[in-house]
Amino acid sequence: MNILVCIKQVPASSDVNIDEETGTIIRDGVDSKMNPYDLYALELGLQLKEQYGGCVDVVSMGPPQANEVLEEAIAIGADKGSLLSDRAFAGADVLATSYTLAQGIESLGNYDLILCGKQTTDGDTAQVGAEIAEFLDFDHATNILNIDNVSDSGVSVQMNLGDVIYHQDMKFPCVLTIEKDINTPRLPSYKRKCQLDETKISMSSLADFKDQDKMHYGLNGSPTSVEKVFPPDKNTEQETFTGTPEEMAIKLVNEMKDLKLI
């Protein structure tokens, strides 16, 4: 089974700056890490490889420093990685990001299973995995809690739909987005990190894609834009009620009525 895991480098802290013109996160000089949800997708891919054979590759879109998460993924157990990096990709919304990843995946070869984390911690849209599948015309399922069965033609999965757990048979090739409760990700291997072969990581740009129209990527290919991003106002005002439990309850109810909370 040939598996591809989509991973992303995200800020390691919530203390980030925003480009006022584009509404995008300024990533230069910010400590970064692999998106936590992607670790669960990678662990699932490695478990499937150990049980059924094949390969686990990783792909990421981002600036050159995103190479770090590809190196981390290989230290964890991935076979090789590919970075999609081009100035034309900068400022992409979820649609342009998904299209870029889909184009990159098509340029990398044929995969039976594409795994993504359910969402990223810097955007939290949970849309990219499904949109990749739509651009590739693959079947897809989201919020995967477990894989019940694997055959030569597909997989049987459990999806968390909130009120119910839904069981679905998926035909290869397909895209799955993975929940965090599915497994416990393994740690990177120090030995694999020391033995990292840089040739296992390749870089692709717009020139390597089938569609080279710059209007389909980055800010040009993004139908949505962020008008304004700002930190929430900090409210540190406090009020303390004293008295008997009954008196404090009455005071609290009156206060909530004054604030129009009830």
Describe this structure in words.
With 262 residues, this protein is of the alpha/beta class. It is built from 6 helices and 13 strands. It has helices at residues 36-52, 67-76, 94-108, 128-136, 190-194, 245-258; strands at residues 2-6, 9-11, 17-18, 25-26, 32-34, 55-61, 80-84, 113-117, 139-150, 154-160, 165-171, 174-178, 201-204. The strands form 3 sheets. A 9-stranded mixed beta sheet has the order 11-10-9-12-8-1-6-7-13, sandwiched between helices. A hairpin with a 4-residue loop joins strand 10 (154-160) and strand 11 (165-171). Helix 3 (94-108) packs across helix 4 (128-136). It starts with a strand and ends with a helix.
How are the strands of the biggest sheet laid out side by side?
Answer: 11-10-9-12-8-1-6-7-13
| Helix-strand sequence | EEEEEHEHEHEHEEEEHEH
Q: Which regions have little confidence, pLDDT < 50, spanning 5+ residues?
A: none
* Average pLDDT number: 92
Strand content: 25-35%
Rg calc: 22 Å
Distance between the termini: 56 Å
Major beta-sheet overview: 9 strands, mixed
Number of helices: 6
Estimated helix fraction: 25-40%
Query: What is the global morphology?
Result: globular
